[in-house]
């Protein structure tokens, strides 16, 4: 089987249950989720396999959940069987609380940086926020499976909390925003 199908050569792509132009808002939404999955993979390879086993496991799980979300976003069939579950969100909230407890309290805005893994997790956060915006735009036009947007919103919080936890674990202070600098 070839990797190329030539079906997209006319500027269209297939969804589950329809065909749309490649620049359709739905394709933008699941494409950005796919991009997020890639940067999560990049973040994973920067982690220390012994010290950060919990974050590696969480991010690996998240990659599978993002694939579920991408599939759900690509599915326009009536009576679709969606994969994204509220339980995904509950798990994220537990992990956010755990990572948040590992970092010192803050009273300033945090800039991406510190440890290289922390910076990679901040990149995940910003791509996640963009995916969330794309999904919100799609929701303005079409009904979507409700847990998807909620999951992405919570996921960006997890990236922020885990980025701060990584800096704390490494004994590196978060980079704080200082106005006018």
TrEMBL record:
<dbReference type="Pfam" id="PF01923">
    <property type="entry name" value="Cob_adeno_trans"/>
</dbReference>
<dbReference type="GO" id="GO:0009236">
    <property type="term" value="P:cobalamin biosynthetic process"/>
</dbReference>
<dbReference type="GO" id="GO:0005524">
    <property type="term" value="F:ATP binding"/>
</dbReference>
<dbReference type="InterPro" id="IPR016030">
    <property type="entry name" value="CblAdoTrfase-like"/>
</dbReference>
<comment type="similarity">
    <text>Belongs to the Cob(I)alamin adenosyltransferase family.</text>
</comment>
<dbReference type="InterPro" id="IPR036451">
    <property type="entry name" value="CblAdoTrfase-like_sf"/>
</dbReference>
<keyword id="KW-0067">ATP-binding</keyword>
<keyword id="KW-0808">Transferase</keyword>
<protein>
    <recommendedName>
        <fullName>Corrinoid adenosyltransferase</fullName>
        <ecNumber>2.5.1.17</ecNumber>
    </recommendedName>
</protein>
<comment type="pathway">
    <text>Cofactor biosynthesis; adenosylcobalamin biosynthesis; adenosylcobalamin from cob(II)yrinate a,c-diamide: step 2/7.</text>
</comment>
<dbReference type="InterPro" id="IPR029499">
    <property type="entry name" value="PduO-typ"/>
</dbReference>
<feature type="domain" description="Cobalamin adenosyltransferase-like">
    <location>
        <begin position="3"/>
        <end position="165"/>
    </location>
</feature>
<dbReference type="GO" id="GO:0008817">
    <property type="term" value="F:corrinoid adenosyltransferase activity"/>
</dbReference>
<keyword id="KW-0547">Nucleotide-binding</keyword>
<comment type="subunit">
    <text>Homotrimer.</text>
</comment>
<keyword id="KW-0169">Cobalamin biosynthesis</keyword>
């Amino acid at each position: 089987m070839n990797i190329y199908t030539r079906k997209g050569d006319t500027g269209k792509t297939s969804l589950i249950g329809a065909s749309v132009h490649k620049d359709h808002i739905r394709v933008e939404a699941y494409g950005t989720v796919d991009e997020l999955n890639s940067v999560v993979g990049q973040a994973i390879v920067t982690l220390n396999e012994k010290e950060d086993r919990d974050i590696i496991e969480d991010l690996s799980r998240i990659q599978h959940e993002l694939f579920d979300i991408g599939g759900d976003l690509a599915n326009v069939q009536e009576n679709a069987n969606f994969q994204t579950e509220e339980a995904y969100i509950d798990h994220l909230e537990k992990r956010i609380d755990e990572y948040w407890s590992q970092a010192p309290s803050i009273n300033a805005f945090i800039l991406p940086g510190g440890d290289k893994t922390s910076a990679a997790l901040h990149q995940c956060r910003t791509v996640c926020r963009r995916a969330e915006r794309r999904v919100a735009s799609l929701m303005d036009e079409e009904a979507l499976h409700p847990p998807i947007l909620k999951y992405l919103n919570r996921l960006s919080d997890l990236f922020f909390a885990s980025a701060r936890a990584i800096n704390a674990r490494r004994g590196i202070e978060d980079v704080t925003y200082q106005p006018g600098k």
